[in-house]
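Researcher: Before we compare anything, I want clean individual predictions. No alignment, no superposition, just each chain on its own. First chain goes here; please echo the sequence and then give the structure tokens.
Model: Echoing the first chain and its structure:
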Amino acid sequence: MKQYLVLAMREPNFDAGAIEPHREFIAALRAQGRLERSGGFSDKSGGAYVLLAPDLDAATALAHTDPLHLTGASRLTIYEWQV
């Protein structure tokens, strides 16, 4: 599995109602062993998490099931992260 960095930046129309479903999504990824780490930015502009996936397409498909993306609350950008 490769690591993918997902940057989740809040959109101007950010709805705080997406936060709890996003936390549940992150907890499920962690329980499945598909999440390396996650956290928010101190300036409240968004956050990031590191997914484990076989390729960029799989990582993108998984990230696009995040409630932050589904509700349009945040813009997600996914990068293969080589560490």
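Researcher: Okay. Second chain, same rules.
Model: Second chain and its structure:
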Amino acid sequence: MSSTASGKNGTWRNWGGNVVSRPAREVTPASVEELAAAVRQAAEDGLTVKPVGTGHSFTSIAATDGVMIRPQLLTGIRKIDRDAMTVTVEAGTPLKRLNLALAREGLSLTNMGDIMEQTVSGATSTGTHGTGRDSASIAAQIKGLELVTADGSVLTCSEKENPEVFAAARIGLGALGIVTAITFAVEPVFLLTAREEPMPFERVLAEFDALWAENEHFEFYWFPHTGSTNTKRNNRSAGPEKPVGQVAGWFEDEFLSNGVFQVAQWVGRAVPATVPTIARVSSRALSARTYTDIPYKVYTSPRRVRFTEMEYAVPREALTETLRELKAMVDRSDLRVSFPVEVRTAPADDITLSTASGRDSAYVAVHMFKGTPYQAYFTAAERIFTAHEGRPHWGKVHTRDAEYFAGVYPRFGEFTALRDRLDPDRRFQNDYLRRVLGS
């Protein structure tokens, strides 16, 4: 089966396997006109509409019992504008294809997340991000959007055209319309030098402000049940290119991070008591390495071990306290957590419902191996995150609702008012949006 989530007999499953839905019908439009017609037809039939990308969200944000729109025919680059340094791409294009196509043209996005399986519209609509001191999420690099709204009309927006829609629709949760094309800012391709090295947990926390300030892209993974982390700094480099050697790359990325990791997860799931020992061994198995390559080869890595994930953005200044509380909680519980906790940052942006909207943010992501009960761990972690006014990633597991979001997003009302205007009949509604945006 391809990496795209799917199912048999009309059922659809997401990548993590934790969301199932049964759409009334599926439509795979080959053009914006066909998509608009499908939306109008759904309205006549009294059905809701949901586009679904690769199913990489762990929430039911893409689930529908109405019309499911598959965007795989809406792919490819529409236009490259070298004067404006933008590229316009069809909404169903996988990030992987966009990154490859841009590299061939000598171009690159400034920043990206750590996987590139998702479609450009799915990734941006849910707020997918990497880590960056100065550069923000993928959606923050959007310069223009085209979307089909509830009445079947095509709306374009940018900072100059329909700016109030542009402010919200870059991370629109699928609530404002169906994105059909995205214009991204790009720059000439550049080199990044990655430096990965283990570092004690306490040292990372003590030096976090300096590590953040001195590096364009800093992130680290903490292994629960240990005092160990693996840090990664990515900075622009004059070269020369020094990719990870094929054998070393296979060993670190495929064997250690995916192969051995997969086996360790199976063992940990079968015998939870072994998890702390496995964690200590895993955290020591990673050695320091440095390599230099074009951006997408440094930012992204394959994720073959399936998991369920919760991630919250907390104010950046609250990060060390949040992590200390998380570590104390794991240490005093009888939880057995076999997946590392991932920590990244983003500068404040101006997108209405971006997790970094109006505040410098740090992201803390907790994971559990697919098929392992995650509720106890995620509930305890969420209690810590929400105490710091955390904002959950829109595509990852959380239990928050509209009332909570109205408190942590100063511009929440601006988004819901725009939704009332663009989708008064809730053509794009589903259970998830009812919960997070209110009905």
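Researcher: What stands out in the second chain?
Model: The chain has a mean pLDDT of 92. Additionally, The first strand starts at residue 12 and ends at 13.
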